[in-house]
C-alpha cells in the first residue's frame, strides 16, 4: 500500500507525464488520466519498470484511466479510482489542456473556442469540485493546476488559449479562498515555452526555437521535468503556506516588460 496518492490529468505526455513519473518515483500511487490510451499504457510501463524510481528508491504504482476531462463523470471516476485503489487522495494535478492558434474571423473559430474552454476551463472546474471532498475527508491536501504564461500575457493569434488560461489563473484564486478552511491548498504553475508535444510543430522549426529562445532571459525553452519539479514543490509540505498563487516558470519572460530591452524576434 502506498503512503500517498495523486491524480494527474493530461498524464500521457509532456508536463503531465513528467509529473506522473516524478510522483511515482517518489512513492506515490498515481491515477493517470488522459484521452490517449496508448500514451497511458507507455507511461504505466515505464514509470513502474524496475529501476525507474532510481537506486534505492521505492517506486509507486501508476493506474491509467482513459477519459475525457471535460465530462463530469470523469471527475467522479478518477476520484473513486484513487480511493478504491489507494484508499486515499493527497494531491490532484489538473494538468490536461489543449491549445491552438487561430484568427478571430476564421471559419470554425467559435467551435474551436468551445473545445479549448471545455478542456482547459470546464475540465479544471470539474476536477476541483470532484477531488475536493476526498481531500477534505483525508484532512486536507493540495491541488495544483497547470496554467500558462499565456494566461498572464497575450500572444497574437492565441486569443482562445490566452482566455482559457487567464480564466484558470483566477479560478485558482477563487478555489483557494473557498477551500482554505478545509485545509486544501490550490495553486497553479504557469509554464513558459516548454519542450512538449503540444508545441511539436514549433519545436520542429529550428529558426522558431532560436528566435523565441532569444526572447527568454534564460535563452532556452524549459524541459517538462523542470515544470514537474515546480508542481512537486507546490504539492509538497514545503509549500504549506502557499495557496491561491500562480508560480511562473517561464525563464524570466514575464519579468522584463517595460524594463529590459530584448533582442528583436527576427533571426
Automatic annotation (TrEMBL):
Protein origin, superkingdom: Bacteria
Keywords: Oxidoreductase
Matching PANTHER family: DEHYDROGENASES, SHORT CHAIN, ESTRADIOL 17-BETA-DEHYDROGENASE 8-RELATED
SUPFAM superfamilies named among the record's database cross-references: NAD(P)-binding Rossmann-fold domains
Pfam families noted in UniProt: adh_short_C2
GO molecular function, one term: oxidoreductase activity
Protein biosynthesis found in the keyword field: no
Keyword Phosphoprotein: no
Descriptive protein name: Oxidoreductase
Stated family: Belongs to the short-chain dehydrogenases/reductases (SDR) family.
Organism: Parafrankia colletiae
